[in-house]
Specification:
alpha+beta, four-stranded antiparallel β-sheet
Length: about 130
C-alpha cells in the first residue's frame, strides 16, 4: 500500500495541515520561473530577428555578401561569377552585414540597371535583379 503523501494526500500531524516537503522554497521557485520566462522571451526575440533577416537576405546571420540583397525595394540574387566590371557604378548603400552595394545611380528613384555589385573589401559578387 502506498503512503498517503505519495498518493497526493495531505500530511497531517493531528492538529494542523503540514506543507508537503519540496526541494524548492517559494522564492527559489519564483526566481527559476522568472529566469525561464526571460530565457523564453530572449529566444523568441532572437528567433524572430533571424526569421526577419532571412526574409530580407536569405541568411540567418548578417553577412557582408548575403545570398539576396534588397536595393530600392527590389531583390537581387548574389552569385560569384568572377570579378564584375565596376565602371559607372557608385556606392549606393550597405548590406546588413556591412557589405557595400554599388550600382548605377537611380533615375527617378528607380534602379537604372538590372544588377548591383556587392563587395566586402576582399571579394566582389554581381547580383542580378531577382524579381
Amino acid at each position: 500500500m502506498t503512503p498517503g503523501h505519495l498518493r497526493g494526500e495531505a500530511i497531517t500531524d493531528g492538529t494542523h495541515l503540514a506543507r508537503p516537503r519540496t526541494w524548492l522554497n517559494g522564492s527559489a521557485a519564483a526566481a527559476i520561473t522568472l529566469a525561464l520566462v526571460a530565457l523564453a522571451v530572449a529566444l523568441t526575440a532572437v528567433g524572430l530577428a533571424s526569421v526577419c533577416l532571412f526574409a530580407q537576405s536569405g541568411a540567418f546571420w548578417p553577412e557582408a555578401i548575403p545570398p539576396y540583397v534588397q536595393y530600392l525595394g527590389e531583390s537581387y540574387h548574389c552569385m560569384d561569377l568572377g570579378a564584375p566590371d565596376m565602371r559607372g557604378l557608385t556606392l549606393q548603400g550597405h548590406t546588413t552585414g556591412g557589405g557595400l552595394i554599388y550600382a548605377r545611380p537611380p533615375i527617378d528613384g528607380n534602379a537604372s540597371a538590372g544588377f548591383v555589385v556587392v563587395t566586402d573589401g576582399q571579394r566582389r559578387e554581381i547580383c542580378p535583379f531577382g524579381g
